[in-house]
Design a protein that fits this description.
Largest interface: A-B, 53 and 55 residues
Strand content of chain A: under 5%
CATH class of the largest domain in chain A: Mainly Alpha
Distance between the termini of chain A: 55 Å
Largest sheet of chain A: 3 strands, antiparallel
Number of domains of chain A: 2
CATH superfamily of the largest domain in chain A: GntR ligand-binding domain-like
Oligomer: homodimer
Radius of gyration of chain A: 24 Å
DNA sequence: CTCTACCATTTGTCTGACAAATTAGGGAAT
DNA sequence: ATTCCCTAATTTGTCAGACAAATGGTAGAG
């Protein structure tokens, strides 16, 4: 392969430029909060026009890699990527894959169960009192009969996110982000009609007590029961969707 | 909160437009492979200029949500998001977080161990012969003394990715993508000098045999030993970095 | 010394234009 | 009649210049 021919320039200037800058950030040649040259200067450096530079910067802005401000002290700055930003990116990607049917609900439920079981073991050792209190607060919320279904689901997500957080491992939290923030709502949307909210709150409380006592095995058992119940309800929902005698399930498409 | 004041238009037109289109895709109002209007028509619809539309489209292109082609049958099309694209996004985000020091190496190692242990149990039941063969091939590669360190690490990553794949759960695979594709190379870069390659290949083979026999517990045990050894070597590397008597570790910054 | 008004700088957006790519269709040659 | 090539049309990619909006600094007035 002695062929290069000057690097195949047929891929779009903006794309190449954005990748150059992205690599510079990833490799640390551009420090966080460092201000990069003005758009005009960048255009001169790369020998392209300003709109092209702007398109390249937009690509990076879409990934939250840079931020821009107007004014004399303004300009384009390298962003410190926050965990929440990363979580959002992962959640979006996961949501897309779900909506395209790349995952089955059974896949999602299983992945969630396995990851959360891991978290239960770790959280039993490492949970803080604050995290315990946050879980208790969600349980209290979930007991409110006036709570809307959507809010109940949101509370459910927050509860389980707190569980993962209580495992005290940011890397694990990152890995779980996609499954929790995006996949669980998908599950909820399908089957929340069939979920007994009091039962859910009860199981949550059982889990909470186990973590309070730092009893990892009890926590795992509680979670397993919870997930098994969820799976039963999911199968029930699936059966009804397969043979929809009564329009019990509201159509997803409005 | 009776305040809205027409929705705060101070966020950038391109951003708003890209979010509108993104939501349309996520909610299924735009089908995959559907062609959306030409840039000119979009500009007219949104009452903005074409560069603004282009900036919005660039943001979406950066997320692989759309693709563009020139020509009469060209235009902008909705992309079917592939798992590899998603994996790439997650890996990039993870790499960024690692380079910013959001995760410690201990976090990463633990997350990897926990997730892979889960996969071991599932893979013992579900692994296909093809996956088994792929693992064997990697082991054969890893036994080659002429293999470069970088290639050895790459083979290591592929081996473990196959393990996750053998668990037969796409959602779990997605969750593990960040930890495997991006975090493990980071680990390898730090400590690969200290890893006994024959030892690694041996442990891999032990894992391979356990999966071949569909023995989940043996697979978990093999992986645990492997990860514990890795952790020991990591601590050794860390100690050397803390007190660098000899320049055994090449600087990362060249 | 403090506050206000102006100003310079930088990004955000617009207008208009041309270049490049790619397909459709017509015309010519076999 | 069929096949090949060439031209034209359409759409994105890039460029150039300009003005608007925001924002922080600074000079001047009280």
């Amino acid at each position: 392969m002695a062929i290069d021919y000057q690097g195949l320039v047929t891929q779009g200037l903006a794309r190449q430029i954005s990748e150059k800058i992205r690599d510079a950030i990833l490799e640390g040649r551009l420090q966080v909060h460092e201000r990069l040259p003005t758009e005009e200067e960048l255009a001169a450096r790369f020998s392209v026009s300003r709109p092209t530079i702007r398109e390249a910067l937009k690509r990076l802005a879409a990934q939250n890699l840079i931020r821009s401000r107007r004014g004399p002290t303004g300009g384009t700055f390298v962003n410190r990527p926050s965990r929440d930003d990363a979580r959002g990116l992962v959640a979006t990607a996961a949501a897309l894959l779900v909506s395209m049917g790349e995952f089955t609900l059974a896949d999602i439920a299983e992945a969630r169960q396995q990851i959360e079981i891991v978290c239960c073991g770790l959280a039993a050792q490492r949970r803080t009192d604050e995290q315990l209190a946050a879980m208790a607060e969600e349980i209290r919320l979930q007991r409110d009969p006036a709570l809307l279904d959507a809010d109940f689901c949101a509370s459910d997500v927050r509860f389980h996110r707190t569980l993962v957080e209580a495992a005290g491992n940011p890397a694990l939290e990152f890995a779980a982000a996609g499954v929790l923030d995006s996949l669980q709502p998908a599950v909820n949307l399908v089957i929340f009609r069939f979920r007994d909210r009091r039962q859910v709150a009860l199981q949550h409380e059982r889990l909470h007590r186990a973590l309070e006592a730092r009893n990892g095995e009890a926590a795992c058992a509680a979670l397993t029961d919870y997930m098994n119940a969820l799976r039963r309800q999911y199968r029930k929902a699936q059966a009804l969707r397969a043979a929809p005698v009564a329009p019990a399930v509201g159509g997803v498409r409005g």
